[in-house]
Design brief:
single chain, five-stranded mixed sheet, 7 strands, about 60% helix
């Protein structure tokens, strides 16, 4: 009986655990003193790499320096701000703390470049000392008596028999994952992706995780420690299989971002008219700042584990959104799990959109929390009454929050909006649309926040992105309303190349379609709830972007990525309702056999989804896996190449751009990935006579699977070039081949 209520029940109104009732002790989501202690440690971590200057390299490993600056940038000044605001929910408090901290680093770094005040060491000192002072000031102003929000399903015991067993099983899953990555033959990945190289240790680990999650979700009392640990291990399995095996980022575009960051570090300014992404350089500015203060040569230490970091951070707002929409912590944990199991898009790598999604999700989570907890004026009856009343109503104050503290939360949201605007091109549009829905439905106190967000976006687009829009103004407006064109570029044009690989793409499409259907069914099941219309509007908001921007053919994928934090809670709610129909008897009871059949079914489904997401995320391993060998050889090659030389790269190879290729004193790199050159690569290369021909395992895989150029044709082209006598191999390794024109100097001999 307890299991059925826990898994399927929902709250229509605010929970006493989410608000601070009038006349009672001040409430915090986390223990304020413990949180502020973390803030003090994070402030100190920001300053430790600065001690001793470059001499720090001699006694503190680069990985530890990187970890210290990330620790600081993640938690301060967000922690003292959130404690001062007395945000009551754990997940929401953590979301705001992390988002505000990251936003501060991004805004300060970006505007120090714009204002020509670039001095990372001085800036880091000011940030660290200010955060430390803020932590102390908030500590001194803490009330003498307060209470920390507790969840009624939380197990009061730190370690009981169930928890110990489940944590040991998770450790076993980590050991199995380590064994799998140590033996993974990622170079053998072909048209089916990495799934063909996955062995029994990986599958056994997935089964363990799935069983733990299934058992924990169906217990009468949710163990949040076990669920949090299970989520981290699940994210590790889903995102880090190839990065841990190779030691490098599994999404090679991260190396392009490494090149952007290196250029900012070297110039101390934003390069002009080089790449459109510099018009939204907040992420790159922050990356250059953190890389500099950590005394790292480049941002590579941040890259491999970035998916684990961003997905762990994003779990907090996803959980908070789910609690606000469904009212149940159990469904919220299921939403977090589903988010990871359908997250095949690989848009969580070392990139601006990763942090932009954190900002967007946190903004939505905060507004949904207020909508759930605050009193809401009634609407006039009927459709006409709704249409005339909803846009004019204003959400009340959250109990326990006065006007000043509510206004302060609004100011915090504006900070996140500003950081989002300078970080990413397309996510700010979604923020404006979503905030517009909140105002249109009368679901917020910040009725003009959508206008503020729009003005910030317009101001930055006019000033900060002037290099972009002056050259792309026609393209920007010509894409508006062309839904069919956006869908064709985002879906149809990508279904090309090798026939088997093309068919495997349908598995990705099917996974996204299934996720959307689950979310839609969950939304239908929510009819009559307070958040029904609003959640549906937020779910559909991301797909309105398809009518506004083509985004270089990626808007369809980005729409699914941006809708996922809202889609996952709806899907989880639909699954919880379906479980009620399948396993609960007419008298509302769940017998032991029924419960264990529920556990078994859930474990099987989660395992299957884990295998599917592994297949989908690893489908492009043949042309996305990056090895240390490839990176080292490429860096040395690009650094040695004369600025007057030309490099022909067979297909797109991001590691080549990851080296310093920005500026006039760099070689000219041409990527061959389009007809007519693809028809005969050998003849094309001999006709163009580049100084060097740069061929990588990534480029070969992309030509074979995406462009349909067979491996035999590629081998024949290489043989033809070498047999001509005009080119000789200069670098010949399993993942990289560089052919040098006979009159071009080899590596290390450039005058």
């Amino acid at each position: 009986m307890a299991v059925s209520r826990a898994l399927t029940a929902t709250d229509a109104g605010p929970s006493p655990l989410d608000i601070e009732p009038a006349g009672r002790l001040p409430s915090f989501g986390w223990s304020p003193r413990a949180a502020l202690l973390v803030g003090v440690l994070a402030s100190a971590a920001m300053l430790v790499p600065l001690v001793g200057g470059n001499g720090q390299d001699q006694w503190l490993p680069p990985e530890l320096r990187a970890a210290l600056v990330i620790f600081g940038a993640t938690f301060v000044p967000g922690i003292p701000i959130v404690i001062a605001l007395r945000i009551p929910g754990r997940a929401l408090a953590a979301s705001l703390a992390v988002a505000l901290s990251l936003a501060t680093t991004i805004l300060v770094s970006q505007f120090s470049l714009i204002g020509h005040w670039w001095n990372p060491y001085r800036t880091q000192t000011v940030l660290g000392v200010s955060a430390l002072v803020l932590c102390v000031a908030v500590w001194l102003r803490l009330p003498s008596r307060f209470r920390v929000s507790r969840n009624r399903y939380q197990n009061a015991l730190w370690m009981d028999r169930w928890r110990a067993t489940e944590l040991v099983a998770l450790v076993a899953a980590v050991v199995l994952f380590a064994r799998q990555t140590s033996t993974l033959d990622y170079m053998a990945a072909g048209k089916f992706g990495i799934i063909t190289e996955v062995g029994w240790p990986y599958v056994a680990g997935l089964v363990l995780i799935s069983c733990i999650v299934a058992v924990t979700l169906t217990r009468s009392r949710i163990d949040h420690v076990v669920m949090a640990a299970s989520t981290v291990v699940l994210i590790t399995y889903a995102t880090l299989l190839v990065p841990i095996a190779t030691g490098e980022s599994s999404f090679p575009t991260a190396f392009v971002h490494r090149g952007f960051i290196t250029a900012i570090m070297q110039e101390g300014a934003l390069p002009k008219a080089v790449d459109a992404r510099f018009s939204w350089a907040g992420f790159f500015s922050a990356g250059a700042h953190l890389t500099s203060v950590a005394h790292l040569p480049d941002s590579q230490p941040f890259m491999a584990l970035a998916p684990l970091y961003f997905n762990c951070v994003l779990a907090f707002p996803v959980y908070a959104i789910a609690v606000a929409v469904t009212g149940r912590t159990r469904v919220a944990w299921l939403a977090v799990v589903l988010y990871q199991l359908f997250n095949w898009y690989q848009q969580d790598y070392f990139a601006p959109q990763s942090v932009a999604l954190v900002f967007y999700s946190t903004i939505i989570a905060t507004l949904l929390w207020q909508f759930r907890c605050a009193p809401l004026p009634r609407l006039d009856p009927g459709v006409l009454g709704f249409l005339t009343t909803a846009p004019r109503r204003t959400l009340g104050l959250v109990p326990g929050f006065g006007r000043a503290r509510t206004a302060a939360i609004g100011a915090a949201l504006i900070v996140l909006i500003a950081a989002n605007v300078v970080t990413h091109q397309i996510t700010p549009l979604l923020v404006v649309i979503s905030l517009g829905f909140f105002s249109l439905l009368g679901a917020t106190r910040y009725r003009v926040l959508w206008l503020v967000a729009g003005l910030i976006f317009a101001a930055w687009f006019t000033y900060g992105a002037s290099d972009y829009w002056m050259g792309h103004l026609y393209g920007i407006f010509s894409e508006v309303g062309k839904v069919g064109s956006s869908v064709t570029e985002g879906v149809g044009d990508r279904l090309t190349g090798d026939p088997v690989y093309k068919k495997m793409q349908y598995l990705r499409i099917g996974a996204s379609a299934a996720f959307a259907v689950l979310g839609f069914m969950g939304w239908i099941a929510m009819r009559g709830r307070r958040s029904w219309l609003l959640s549906g509007a937020l779910f559909g908001a991301a797909f309105l972007l398809i009518a506004l921007q083509g985004y270089d053919g990626e808007v369809v994928i980005r729409s699914f990525v941006l809708s996922a934090p809202m889609l996952a809670p709806l899907a989880a709610f639909g699954i919880s309702r379906a479980s009620q129909r399948l396993w609960i008897t007419r008298d509302g009871a769940v017998t032991a056999p029924l419960r264990w059949s529920m556990v078994a079914a859930l474990a099987v489904v989660l395992t299957a989804l884990g295998i599917v997401v592994t297949t989908n995320r690893g489908l492009n391993t043949a042309f996305e896996a990056t090895t240390p060998e490839l990176v080292a050889a490429t860096d040395e090659f690009v650094a040695s190449a004369s600025p007057s030389s030309s490099i022909m790269s067979w297909s797109y190879s991001p590691p080549a751009l990851g080296a310093n290729t920005i500026g006039s004193q760099t070689p000219d790199i041409v990527f061959v990935d389009k007809p007519p050159c693809l028809a005969d690569l050998g003849t094309c290369a001999l006709d163009q006579q580049p100084s060097y021909i740069y061929i990588t395992s990534q480029g070969m895989g992309m030509l074979e699977f995406q462009d349909g150029v067979t491996y035999d044709r590629l081998s024949e082209a290489i043989t033809k070039i070498v047999d001509s006598g005009h080119y000789v191999p200069m670098v010949d390794k399993p993942t990289i081949l560089i052919l040098r024109r006979t009159d071009s100097p080899p590596i290390g001999e450039v005058p």
